[in-house]
């Protein structure tokens, strides 16, 4: 927006001086001064405060001489002008419709200078700014009526600085009231977001229309109270309000986080608080276009990103050939990329970005960007901020070179200024590894280990990323010899005392790293001959040195304890090739504690032939497909040309690759393995048993308490979850065949999610009586509620997803009979499944829970895959350690969830629930979606 002015006057000098500054140089005080002046200009009087605030931020001022032509008819529009003083002529060609141009210009020129003053009412374009949606209007009315009904003192006339404000509320009181009225609002911040939804749509307004909603002593007025004769709610309206209040709260709780985020992003960067920046940063972590950026860059972006929205599809954001001034990230909606002569070349969607190339190369725009739909939202980074961040990153980057090649890239970042026990403060800057060769990364971590006891926790945290992720770029066969070499390293320079001090500290650092490495890997090391040999050799070396060097004795007991524990466990009789049942997770009802499945454990497994006969093989869990083929061939007497095929219950067939490992636990719930010559592949058919049950078990489990079922499900889920090693997440993300390791425990836990989901659908679709189906819906909603209460989010989401499966959700006649109380519960549960903003609703929920808890594992896997696929593992032949750090951070969620022991509910644990326990551990389900949909249509045929 350009503000055109003819001359300065003394009264306008101050605000014009503010407007005359470059947008980036304006302070919040400057913006307030401009806002106060512009809201008095008639051209802006209908504008929503948010829009006017943005104009104050980005508009600039021009003082023009007489006779200057601003633009000519036919030019591409690049600016919008508002005339503040003086006058101008609008000249239109004789062949054009003057009436049309009168309308177009009416909204751009301020009376009395423009054509709007002299035109008839019919010439004016109706004001469409800030028209609230019907939903939000209704929500505002419900909340106003609820306040007038339950706390009428909150809406009243108030005096402040000798001025009376009619019928208004106080921001802090509104937040307090919201928290009292609904469990949907878990914090004051969340309640602020819920009120901001109303403020954005103009249903609730600051009395001077100068503020977003704030949890402060500020006055806000409902839209209905803008009129002096605003009626009080009738008894009927009060009753409606009571019925609809919780649904309204649920709606606002779903919309609140986005509204709160937009509110923060609309603030000038200089006015964002530390909490604001943290909220923006958390949002940036889940944006696809930014996944490859370092943590430092994301935090820098949080401080400069600007929110931009456009209401109408077809709006041109910028044109091909224009100078690049901004980089855009799509928050909501989609855009078309248009090139002259080619038309639309591609479409970009939520999470994509555009416009960066022109900034990096300082080149004209290579394409035009046109909004593909209405109501698109963007994050914008302006050129100056973009270039500054790039400069800062390069300035804070330290590159270590050998033979003119980068071998280690470090980034300088701020560090906490925490004092040690001796009162010395740590440096305010520290260096983090961005990339490097495996050897140099290891060397850097060893050199930077702090040995002071007070800094143990900080050191362990820094080392944790390397210890968890080294298997990706420096497997044990490389790491162990390198650690031995570092332990025995001797300096070549310095005095004898300096050499002794260096050697001692070096040994202590290596011991420290080995202790953390052994603690992290634990029993996993038992399957690695290289690691076991290293541990024993290393322990002998440290023991020998400790006799001569007293300082090493303090670390020796801890090392001895870990080495002996791992060695003794490895030699224990029960660890010798335990045979597992085919089903892994069913039929094994022994009372002792469930043990994690190891890759060396052996499994008896049926492999089927084309005629549905089978042979039973005995192989290690982590066996490759090549080994499975060999075992099958030995049993069949011939293995020439054999392939191994995964067959689902629906008949989908997948030929497994020879290097695939641990395939037994990757089968679908009712999946089976087949072996056949390649020419028989097309003739393979599923087994009859793969179809699943034909009769439901409602007669059995309807007699069981919903709480008992949820409790026993949680006990079993916790057993499965507790067996999952963090490293299995790494193997799963990067491909287990690359490590030749099993992810059996993770596979079974993920399969459990699908099993519960299909259990819900199966039982409902196998229930022919409508009344029983309604009872089943109620039962499953109750079980889900209890799972949530037990913080078993994995089963909670599995049940809710089962209820939202199309085979269940389409049963309209059944859902119609469900009591409204249960419908509300289900709607609340569904809101937690909302995938928008990368499942923000779920992330906000889990952030409020303390361990122990069972997370929604499929989303955790998705997050790690998102980071893996969005970032290269190697950059210029160097390990991308920033990627390792991000993946390790996600994997540590598992550790956090299990950081407190799961203590069973005493009241539940004391009951004898053997029948419930057996039932939840041996669910029999149909996992063929096509079959379930057909059954659903037989229950309730599609209406004509």
UniProtKB/TrEMBL annotation:
<keyword id="KW-0344">Guanine-nucleotide releasing factor</keyword>
<keyword id="KW-0114">cAMP</keyword>
<feature type="domain" description="Cyclic nucleotide-binding">
    <location>
        <begin position="289"/>
        <end position="390"/>
    </location>
</feature>
<dbReference type="Pfam" id="PF00617">
    <property type="entry name" value="RasGEF"/>
</dbReference>
<dbReference type="Pfam" id="PF00027">
    <property type="entry name" value="cNMP_binding"/>
</dbReference>
<keyword id="KW-0677">Repeat</keyword>
<dbReference type="InterPro" id="IPR014710">
    <property type="entry name" value="RmlC-like_jellyroll"/>
</dbReference>
<dbReference type="InterPro" id="IPR019804">
    <property type="entry name" value="Ras_G-nucl-exch_fac_CS"/>
</dbReference>
<keyword id="KW-0268">Exocytosis</keyword>
<feature type="domain" description="Cyclic nucleotide-binding">
    <location>
        <begin position="43"/>
        <end position="90"/>
    </location>
</feature>
<feature type="domain" description="DEP">
    <location>
        <begin position="149"/>
        <end position="224"/>
    </location>
</feature>
<comment type="function">
    <text>Guanine nucleotide exchange factor (GEF) for RAP1A, RAP1B and RAP2A small GTPases that is activated by binding cAMP. Seems not to activate RAB3A. Involved in cAMP-dependent, PKA-independent exocytosis through interaction with RIMS2.</text>
</comment>
<dbReference type="Pfam" id="PF00610">
    <property type="entry name" value="DEP"/>
</dbReference>
<dbReference type="InterPro" id="IPR000651">
    <property type="entry name" value="Ras-like_Gua-exchang_fac_N"/>
</dbReference>
<dbReference type="InterPro" id="IPR036390">
    <property type="entry name" value="WH_DNA-bd_sf"/>
</dbReference>
<dbReference type="InterPro" id="IPR008937">
    <property type="entry name" value="Ras-like_GEF"/>
</dbReference>
<dbReference type="GO" id="GO:0016020">
    <property type="term" value="C:membrane"/>
</dbReference>
<dbReference type="InterPro" id="IPR023578">
    <property type="entry name" value="Ras_GEF_dom_sf"/>
</dbReference>
<dbReference type="GO" id="GO:0050796">
    <property type="term" value="P:regulation of insulin secretion"/>
</dbReference>
<dbReference type="InterPro" id="IPR036964">
    <property type="entry name" value="RASGEF_cat_dom_sf"/>
</dbReference>
<dbReference type="InterPro" id="IPR036388">
    <property type="entry name" value="WH-like_DNA-bd_sf"/>
</dbReference>
<dbReference type="InterPro" id="IPR029071">
    <property type="entry name" value="Ubiquitin-like_domsf"/>
</dbReference>
<keyword id="KW-0472">Membrane</keyword>
<keyword id="KW-0547">Nucleotide-binding</keyword>
<protein>
    <recommendedName>
        <fullName>Rap guanine nucleotide exchange factor 4</fullName>
    </recommendedName>
</protein>
<dbReference type="InterPro" id="IPR018490">
    <property type="entry name" value="cNMP-bd_dom_sf"/>
</dbReference>
<dbReference type="InterPro" id="IPR000591">
    <property type="entry name" value="DEP_dom"/>
</dbReference>
<feature type="domain" description="N-terminal Ras-GEF">
    <location>
        <begin position="429"/>
        <end position="567"/>
    </location>
</feature>
<dbReference type="GO" id="GO:0030552">
    <property type="term" value="F:cAMP binding"/>
</dbReference>
<dbReference type="Pfam" id="PF00618">
    <property type="entry name" value="RasGEF_N"/>
</dbReference>
<dbReference type="InterPro" id="IPR000595">
    <property type="entry name" value="cNMP-bd_dom"/>
</dbReference>
<dbReference type="GO" id="GO:0005737">
    <property type="term" value="C:cytoplasm"/>
</dbReference>
<keyword id="KW-0963">Cytoplasm</keyword>
<dbReference type="GO" id="GO:0006887">
    <property type="term" value="P:exocytosis"/>
</dbReference>
<dbReference type="GO" id="GO:0005085">
    <property type="term" value="F:guanyl-nucleotide exchange factor activity"/>
</dbReference>
<feature type="domain" description="Ras-GEF">
    <location>
        <begin position="705"/>
        <end position="942"/>
    </location>
</feature>
<keyword id="KW-0116">cAMP-binding</keyword>
<dbReference type="InterPro" id="IPR001895">
    <property type="entry name" value="RASGEF_cat_dom"/>
</dbReference>
<dbReference type="GO" id="GO:0007186">
    <property type="term" value="P:G protein-coupled receptor signaling pathway"/>
</dbReference>
<dbReference type="GO" id="GO:0007264">
    <property type="term" value="P:small GTPase-mediated signal transduction"/>
</dbReference>
């Amino acid at each position: 927006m350009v503000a055109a002015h003819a001359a300065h006057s003394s009264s306008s000098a101050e605000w014009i001086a503010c407007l005359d500054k470059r947008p980036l140089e304006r302070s919040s005080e400057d913006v307030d001064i401009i806002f106060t002046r512009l809201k008095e200009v008639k051209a802006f009087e209908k504008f929503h405060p948010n829009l006017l605030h943005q104009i104050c931020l980005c508009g600039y001022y021009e003082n023009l001489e007489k006779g200057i032509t601003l633009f000519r008819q036919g030019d591409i529009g690049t600016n919008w002008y508002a005339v503040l003083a003086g006058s101008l002529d609008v000249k239109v060609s004789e062949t054009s419709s003057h009436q049309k141009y009168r309308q177009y210009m009416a909204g751009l020129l301020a009376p009395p200078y423009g054509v709007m003053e002299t035109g008839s009412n019919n010439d004016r374009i109706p004001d469409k700014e800030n028209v609230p949606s019907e939903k939000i209007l209704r929500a505002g009315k419900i909340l106003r009526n609820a306040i007038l009904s339950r706390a009428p003192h909150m809406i009243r006339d108030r005096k402040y600085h000798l001025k009376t404000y009619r019928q208004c509320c106080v921001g802090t009181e509104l937040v307090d009231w919201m928290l009292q009225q609904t469990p949907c609002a878990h914090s004051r911040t969340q309640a602020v977001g819920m009120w901001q939804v109303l403020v954005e749509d103009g249903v609730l307004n600051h009395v001077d229309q100068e503020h977003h909603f704030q949890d402060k002593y500020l006055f806000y007025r409902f839209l209905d109270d803008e009129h002096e004769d605003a009626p009080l709610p009738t008894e009927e309206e009060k009753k409606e309000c009571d019925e609809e209040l919780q649904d309204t709260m649920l709606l606002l709780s779903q919309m609140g986080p986005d509204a709160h985020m937009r509110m923060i992003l609309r603030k000038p960067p200089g006015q964002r608080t530390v909490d604001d920046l943290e909220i923006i940063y958390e949002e940036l972590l889940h944006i696809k276009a930014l996944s490859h950026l370092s943590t430092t860059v994301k935090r820098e972006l949080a401080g400069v990103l600007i929110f931009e929205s456009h209401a109408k599809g077809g709006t041109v954001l910028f044109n091909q050939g224009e100078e690049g001034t901004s980089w855009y990230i799509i928050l909501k909606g989609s855009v078309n990329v248009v090139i002259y002569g080619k038309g639309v070349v591609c479409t970009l969607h939520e999470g994509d970005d555009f416009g960066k190339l022109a900034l990096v190369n300082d080149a004209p725009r290579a394409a035009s960007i046109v909004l593909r739909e209405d109501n698109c939202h963007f994050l914008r980074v302006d050129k100056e901020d973009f270039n500054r961040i790039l400069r800062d990153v390069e300035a804070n980057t330290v590159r270590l070179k050998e033979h003119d090649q980068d071998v280690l890239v470090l980034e300088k970042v701020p560090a906490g200024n925490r004092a040690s026990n001796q009162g010395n403060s740590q440096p305010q800057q520290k260096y983090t590894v961005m990339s490097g060769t495996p050897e140099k990364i290891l060397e850097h971590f060893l050199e930077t280990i702090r040995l002071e006891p007070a800094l143990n926790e900080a050191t362990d945290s820094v080392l944790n990323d390397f210890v968890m992720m080294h298997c990706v770029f420096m497997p044990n066969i490389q790491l162990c010899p390198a650690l031995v070499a570092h332990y025995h390293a001797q300096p070549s320079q310095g005095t004898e005392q300096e050499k002794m001090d260096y050697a001692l500290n070096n040994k202590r650092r290596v011991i420290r790293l080995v202790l953390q490495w052994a603690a992290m890997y634990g029993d996993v090391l038992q399957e690695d001959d290289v690691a076991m040999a290293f541990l024993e050799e290393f322990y002998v070396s440290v023991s020998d040195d400790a006799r001569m060097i007293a300082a090493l004795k303090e670390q020796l007991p801890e090392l001895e304890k870990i080495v002996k524990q791992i060695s003794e466990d490895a030699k224990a009789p029960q660890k010798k090739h335990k045979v597992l049942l085919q089903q892994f997770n069913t039929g094994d009802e022994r009372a002792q504690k469930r043990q994690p499945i190891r890759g060396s454990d052996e499994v008896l497994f049926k492999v089927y032939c084309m005629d549905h006969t089978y042979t039973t093989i005995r192989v290690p869990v982590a066996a490759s497909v090549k080994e499975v083929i060999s075992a099958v061939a030995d049993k069949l007497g011939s293995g020439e040309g054999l392939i191994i095929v995964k067959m689902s219950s629906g008949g989908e067939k997948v030929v497994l690759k020879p290097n695939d490992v641990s395939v037994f636990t990757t089968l679908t719930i009712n999946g089976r393995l087949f072996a056949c010559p390649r020419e028989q592949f097309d003739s393979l058919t599923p087994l009859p048993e793969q179809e699943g049950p034909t009769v439901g078990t409602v007669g059995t489990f309807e007699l069981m308490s919903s709480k008992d079922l949820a409790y026993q499900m949680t006990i079993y889920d916790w057993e499965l979850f507790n067996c999952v090693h963090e490293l299995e997440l790494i193997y799963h993300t990067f491909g287990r065949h690359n490590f030749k390791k099993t992810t059996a425990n993770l596979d079974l836990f993920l399969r459990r999610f699908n099993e519960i989901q299909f259990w819900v659908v199966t039982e409902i679709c196998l229930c022919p009586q409508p009344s029983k189906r309604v009872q089943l819906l109620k039962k499953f909603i109750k079980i889900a509620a209890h799972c949530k209460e037990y913080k078993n989010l994995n089963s909670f989401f599995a049940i809710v997803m089962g209820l939202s499966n199309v085979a269940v959700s389409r049963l309209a006649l059944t859902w119609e009979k469900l009591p409204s109380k249960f419908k509300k519960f289900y709607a609340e549960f569904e809101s937690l499944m909302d995938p928008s903003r990368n499942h923000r609703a779920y992330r906000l929920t889990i952030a409020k829970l303390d361990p122990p808890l069972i997370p929604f594992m499929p989303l955790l896997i998705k997050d790690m895959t998102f980071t893996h696929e969005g970032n290269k593992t190697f950059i210029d032949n160097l390990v991308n350690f920033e990627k390792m750090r991000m993946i390790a951070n996600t994997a540590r969620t598992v550790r956090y969830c299990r950081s407190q022991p799961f203590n069973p509910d005493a009241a539940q644990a004391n009951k004898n629930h053997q029948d419930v326990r057996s039932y939840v551990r041996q669910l029999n389900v149909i996992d063929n979606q096509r079959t379930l949909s057909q059954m659903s249509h037989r229950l309730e045929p599609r209406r004509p």
